[in-house]
Backbone:
């Protein structure tokens, strides 16, 4: 079991989640974070930390966000690890809750 970051993180990237992870399994791209499913120990600590409610247990990912399970696994292989909280993306609060952000994902 792993936790998964979903669409609402895109262009928000608050990074609050990073601080609590005991195994440093977050990886950072230009405007999105992912969780490495091979490293996540299912501790649940990160889920309530996200101001964008973008983190779900793998078995609770909403139906319309299922593609993010594979996307987290794919991008975790190439993006660098992030272990410290840093400032959210510019205009993060404006983007929080906006639909259809997948096309804005930068790799
Ligand atoms: Fe890290 Fe725990 Fe979140 Fe997995 S559930 S990403 S181990 S904080
Ligand atoms: Fe993204 Fe939420 Fe973490 S917006 S960077 S999953 S705190």
Residues:
């Amino acid at each position: 079991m792993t936790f998964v970051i979903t669409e609402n993180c895109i262009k928000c990237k608050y990074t609050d989640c990073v601080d609590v992870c005991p195994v440093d399994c977050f990886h950072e791209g230009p405007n999105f974070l992912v969780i490495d499913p091979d490293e996540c120990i299912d501790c649940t600590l990160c889920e309530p930390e996200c101001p964008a409610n973008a983190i779900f247990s793998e078995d609770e990912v909403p139906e319309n966000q299922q593609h993010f399970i594979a996307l987290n696994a794919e991008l975790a292989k190439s993006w660098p690890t992030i272990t410290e909280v840093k400032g959210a993306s510019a205009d993060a609060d404006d983007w929080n809750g906006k639909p259809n952000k997948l096309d804005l994902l930068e790799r």
Summary: The first helix runs from residue 67 to 76. The chain has one domain: 3-81. The chain has a mean pLDDT of 98.
